[in-house]
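REQUEST FORM: STRUCTURE PREDICTION
Request ID: SP-0412
Submitted by: Lab K.M.
Chain count: 1
Length (residues): 75
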Amino acid sequence: RRLVDNAHDAIFLFDQDGRIMDANRVACDQLDSCLDALSTLAAWDIDQNATPEGFEAMHQRLRAENSAMIVGTLQ
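STATUS: Completed
RESULT:
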């Protein structure tokens, strides 16, 4: 948790449906929002390139690769 909280990059944790479950301080600051407000949003609410279909494809890829994360865009 300390690594995420002290990172200089915005870090989000999404559930399998693309909803924001957690975000670090940098993410909140960049979006000028608090975690409570962000937790009502989905990936496509904060990234104009993200779509529910793209998120589902990324989620399928994570499961197929038995991975915990993908760094980069949500496209």
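NOTES: The chain has five helices and two strands.
Reviewed by: T.R.
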